[in-house]
Amino acid sequence: MATTRHRAATAAKIIAGNKSGQAAVEFALIATAMLLLLCAVIDFGRALNYMQVMVGLTRQGSNLASRGTSLSDAAAAVIAGEAPLDISTSGEVIVTSVTNTNNVNEVTGQVTAGALSLASKIGKYVANNANASKATVPSAANLELQNGQTIYVTEVYYDYNPITPIGHLMTITMPSTLYQAAYF
Fold this sequence. Notes:
It is a single chain. The chain is of the alpha+beta class. It has one domain. About 50% of the residues lie in helices and about 20% in strands. It has a 4-stranded antiparallel sheet with strand order 2-1-3-4. The radius of gyration is 29 Å and the shape is rod-shaped. The model has no long low-confidence stretch (mean pLDDT about 85).
C-alpha cells in the first residue's frame, strides 16, 4: 500500500514538472511574440509621428511662399521648424512655384535645402524660361489653377531610421525615405 502511494506521489510530481515546463515554453513563445509586436509598434508609431510633422512642415512652407515669402526663405523656415526631425542632415526640402501659362503648368522657380539630393516629383526648374519644365501637380490643383495663376508646392523628404531590430526588418513594408507634399 505504501508503494502504491509512493508511486502515485511520484507520478503526480512528474506530471506537475511537465506542466511547469510546458508553461515555461508557452511563456517564452508568447513573450517573444509580444516583444516583436512591441518593437514593430514603436517603429511604426515613430514613422507616423514623423509623417504628421512633415504634413505640418509642407503646409507651412507652401503657405509662406504663397503669401509672398521668397522660396529660399520658405525653405529655411521649414528647416527651422523641423523638430523632432533633423532635415538639415537627414532630409530635403524643395519649394517650387508652378505657373499656368496658356493652360500648361510650368515650373517657374525652385529652391532646395537639406542634406539629400533627391529630385522633385513636381518637376525641375530650368533657368531659361523658353525651356521651362512642365510641372506635374495633383489633379485637384490642376482644376483650381487658372491661366496666369501660380501655386507653390513644398516637398519634404526624410530618411527614416528605425530604432529597434524589428524596425530594420520592416523596411520591406515601410519606405526608408518618407515623403510629403503640400500646395497652396
